[in-house]
Give the backbone structure.
Amino acid sequence: MKGMLMRTLVSGLGRRVAVAGIILVLMPGLVVAEVSDEAKRQFNNGVEYEKADKPDSAIAAYTAALAEAPDYLDAHINVGALYYQKGDLTNAAQHLEHAVRLDSTQASAYKNLGLVRQQAEEYPAAVAAFTRYLSYQPDDGGAWASLAQVYKESGEKAKAVDAYNKALAADPEDYRSAYNLGNILQEQKKFEAAKAAYLKAIGAKSNYVEAYYNLAICSHQIDFESCVPDYEAFIAKAGTSKKWTKQVTQARDIIKQINDYLDVKTD
């Protein structure tokens, strides 16, 4: 009976995009080499363009600053971040690599570089960059979550679990990390631990339908005779959303089959 019911399920496990945010230098900061007043003026122009949501103009201003001062650290960090946001990973990496060569302790450059390398699917380089950043900023839950995703995408599930746990230690309300942790644990058939992770995600975001769905699947794997309340909770949260029509229909069918089985068992 249990095997028959489980064959009706459709997996709800999904891929998550990185959550770590790009870091910009919004005020003139460290300058490794002496720069001219014109370079500083162009840098400040770039900051103002960014505040006005004019990324192309900001890139032009930072590029002008770098033409005046090729080792202007903050300009490299900001223009690299902007290229990343535009999807130009080659130019983004070039500027951010230059930044960390100028100052190997520059935390923000390493975080941005990690995001660039992750997007380019250059996983060892992404791990190295995020790890270096986290050695300076160990309480950045978003960076831990991004590192966890890199490990997940590169097949290092144990390291991903550890990184997601550290993300949640830094930010207990990070429902995405709790959900993604649950997904990995469920893939590893660690259903009790996965269930706890989904419950944590739901605790942080009470309308997280995906977490309710995968919670029901975990409960089904643990004890199909007592999973009906979790399926019912999923159905209630999914409501009439067309996105979940198929899963709701399946969940209702599973509930009926379980109840019919329990009625026969009781008789």
